[in-house]
Specification:
Elements lengths: L4 H24 L6 H26 L1 H31 L7 H29 L3 H19 L11 H9 L12 E4 L2 E4 L1 H25 L5 H13 L1 H7 L10 H23 L3 E4 L2 E4 L5 H32 L1
Antiparallel strand pairs: 1-2, 3-4
Helix pairs in contact: 1-4, 1-8, 2-3, 2-9, 3-7, 3-8, 3-10, 3-11, 4-7, 4-8, 5-10, 6-7, 7-10, 10-11
């Protein structure tokens, strides 16, 4: 896929403009968004992603469009899993409801920047070392097994990572909130507010999630431009998704299993791709042939089916348990 430099620049400028608009809008009026507000914005972002995918189809063909849609759906589904941790972070730091949008927005901006670096490193590794697909594939299968066996954490409290503990111990801080400000001056001293630690917690947590999401999308497309745009579109709607489905997350009881199956599928696809690139023989009917690859059409179909079954089964079980609880 040959992407001209002006397309890269235009894409980054438009993404930055949308994010800037979002940041300014929230900064001018911190508030708890209504269901109508988040639904409208989420609809706009999803519509923009679909139009972008159709544009890729028109200019680059169905194969690359399929890769974008598969990558976008995968990143979006993994982002939904992230939201549960975001809810725990907000509860841990007791973030006032009207300031949660500001914290999420800045955390998302940090996440986009960090993911951009991950994508660049991943692209460089793939271009220079074909064996990296074995590592990516093995890591995704390991993550899938761990996710399926351990499931979601039952802890209702966010456990800070080592980086957060180090930052909190070294930066002078106040316990008082001061709007969306990360720093304030008290008695001539510059102090960090709880907002700074919330933003850092959101950003670093998303970076940890990128450890499986970036290899996962590189299992669906090797085009850095599609990897970047799929991540941008997934993260842009994350703030709205947080407020829209906060209560629904508890009903997605099979989300961990669904994501485990999804990551395992992509992990196998990555390993098959690595074997194919290395031209290792594969015996079929007594004949030595090349190792087969999973086409993107099959990958896209599998992703849709896995996510669809996960959602339907989760909602069915949640509704059944709710009815059993009422009758009991």
């Amino acid at each position: 896929m040959n992407v001209p430099q002006w397309v890269w620049i235009t894409t980054l400028v438009l993404a930055a403009a949308v994010l800037l608009f979002d940041v300014v809008l929230i900064a001018k009026r911190p508030h708890v968004p209504s269901t109508k507000e988040v639904s409208v914005f989420l609809g706009i972002y999803i519509g923009a992603a679909v139009l972008f995918g159709l544009g890729v189809w028109y200019y680059a063909g169905g194969k690359f469009a399929g890769e974008f849609f598969a990558g976008w759906l995968t990143e979006y589904s993994l982002s939904v899993d992230n939201l549960f941790i975001f809810l725990l972070i907000m509860a841990k730091f007791a973030v006032p409801e009207k300031l949660q949008q500001s914290a999420l927005m800045v955390g998302i901006v940090i996440a986009i920047i960090l993911r951009g670096l991950f994508i660049w490193v991943g692209a460089a590794a793939i271009n220079n070392f074909s064996w990296v697909f074995y590592i990516f594939g093995a890591f995704l299968i390991y993550t899938a097994i761990k996710l399926a066996t351990e499931g979601e954490s039952d802890d209702e409290e966010f456990e800070e990572n080592r980086f957060m503990r180090m930052v909190e111990s070294r930066i002078p801080a106040t316990q008082e909130w001061n709007g969306a400000k990360a720093f304030v001056r008290e008695n001539g001293k510059r102090l960090a507010t709880p907002m700074l630690f919330v933003i850092l917690a959101l950003g670093t947590t998303d970076l940890l999630f990128a450890l499986d999401s970036i290899p996962a999308i590189y299992g669906l497309t090797k085009e850095p431009y599609l990897v970047l745009t799929a991540n941008i579109f997934a993260l842009m709607g994350l703030r709205q998704l947080y407020f829209l489905i906060g209560g629904l997350l508890k009903k997605l009881v099979y989300l961990s299993i669904g994501l485990a199956v999804l990551l395992a599928f992509i992990g196998v696809k990555l390993i098959l791709h690595a074997l194919h690139e290395n031209e290792l023989p594969f015996i079929n009917g007594g004949q030595h042939v090349g190792v087969p690859e999973i086409p993107i059409s099959v990958s896209l179909g599998a992703i849709v089916v896995i996510l669809g079954i996960t959602t339907i089964a989760s909602l069915w079980k949640s509704n059944r348990d709710a009815k059993a609880g009422i009758e009991g």
